[in-house]
Amino acid sequence: MARIGVVSISDGRDHVHARIADFIRSKQDSLVRSLQAAGHDVVVGDDLVATNALATSVARKVAAADVDVTVFYYSVWTFPHFTMLAADATRSPLVLVASTDPTEPGLVGMLAAGGALDQIGRRHTRAWGAPDDAELVEKIGVHAKASAAVRSLRGSTFGRFGGRPMGMNTAVANTDQWMRKFGIDVEEIDQYELVLRADKADAAEAKKAREWIEQHAAGVHYDGKKLTPELLERQIRSYQAIRDIIAERNLDFSGIKAQPELTENFATMDVTEAFLNDPYDWNGPKEPHVCATEADMDGALTMQLFKALAGTPVLFADVRHYHADRDIWDLCNSGQHATWYAARSDDPAENLAKVNFYPEVFFFPAGGASVQHIAAPGQMTLGRLTREDGEYRLQLMLGEFESYDDETNQTLVNQSTPEWPHAFARLDAPGEVFLSKFGANHIHAVPGDHRAALRAVADQLDVRLDEWTRG
Ligand SMILES: C[C@H](O)[C@@H](O)[C@@H](O)C(=O)CO
């Protein structure tokens, strides 16, 4: 969970403060208990803010504890300039919370303080309710979680293997904009290093990994040409190479160009990317490493944010086909759908039992395996950071992954590329709107409804929110 600062503001008249201090403390204690019960680490101001000097000193101490958000708490009428000074002393997002107990003018305090912050353009969120109100606690938690996700990007490094694939402008972002807006550095790595390191990778591990895949997968469909044990091991060696480069260069997330150089002359990166994104490999459980197909920078950025919020692997897919008759989208891409999505189990054997490794199709002459499965059903949050006229926007919607009987699944996958992984998504967005407005060929998804946190992320990043729903 997140780290939340709580600073209670008071009235600047000594005699009034003396009379209401116990009331403020009891409300504050109750709010702090509720936040702690929700699993948050709470840093409480070391005094009530009843003077201008305390406004600065109390807020500075809370800020020094590196909180994700700071709550300014209004249970009484407060002097607004205390809020202004306290806000200036903290850089974290602010949540102004008013107590709705009518015995004291808490709402009035919040409105006066919020209005003052508006006047100087200091963004903040407002919330109100009893200190043990579950909705209030949830709302504060959402902003704190969003802030933790945004902050996790700052100081991170994206490893970009290769460059723009096949002229795909949407896969390339501006590195200055990334540093300024998100605090992310981009390390450029030539794919030659991947090839070199793959050739030198530990052969015993590659063999062990191939046998592990053969043992657990629904099928490894060797054909003696496009998919051989040697080619599968080459894909595994590429995973080993990237894993080692990630460790050496401290990469937080990455992307691989692959097309056309590697897919024409070496192997597809599908196995490599799938297991980087998975929460396990043949050596056991591990942290998922976000790795975007086609070195898609904004795709990887979206995935890194989604991962920070959901804590799961993130789906990356082409928006391949709209089955208008069923109102279902086929999200399908040769690249990485983490095998975890097949059954969403912590046990790799349960997922791999639904995964087939097929010889790559005609697009990719160098061959290797594609990692085929149909994503398990369930509610999903889908979207992507895209850019319009140089400015980021978050395109966001809810959806439902569906899966059907074997015959229907087969009929559907046969209409596109059956050898590739598929997620059948019923989007909470009209097909017309999606196709007219979505700003990329790639979309990303995580299980559950994370829209509230993503709205807060967009607000904190000052990114326009483009949210769709059928209403
Ligand atoms: C077949 C192409 O080469 C695919 O890689 C293409 O459909 C994409 O994945 C584009 O995102």
UniProtKB/TrEMBL annotation:
Any single GO CC term annotated in Swiss-Prot or TrEMBL for this entry: cytoplasm
A GO molecular function held by the record: L-fucose isomerase activity
SUPFAM superfamilies in alphabetical order: FucI/AraA C-terminal domain-like (SSF50443), FucI/AraA N-terminal and middle domains (SSF53743)
Top-rank taxon: Bacteria
Pfam families: Fucose_iso_C, Fucose_iso_N1, Fucose_iso_N2
InterPro entries named in the record: Fuc/Ara_isomerase_C (IPR004216), Fuc_iso_dom3_sf (IPR038393), Fuc_isomerase_C (IPR015888), Fucose_iso_dom1_sf (IPR038391), Fucose_iso_N1 (IPR012888), Fucose_isomerase (IPR005763), Fucose_isomerase_dom2_sf (IPR038392), Fucose_isomerase_N/cen_sf (IPR009015)
Domain L-fucose isomerase N-terminal-1: 2-155
Biological processes annotated in GO: D-arabinose catabolic process; L-fucose catabolic process
Residue ranges occupied by any L-fucose isomerase N-terminal-2 domain in the UniProt entry: 253-309
Keywords noted in UniProt: Carbohydrate metabolism, Cytoplasm, Fucose metabolism, Isomerase, Manganese, Metal-binding
Presence of the UniProt keyword Cell wall biogenesis/degradation in the record: no
Ranges for domain L-fucose isomerase C-terminal: 331-468
PANTHER family: L-FUCOSE ISOMERASE
Name the record gives this protein: FucIase
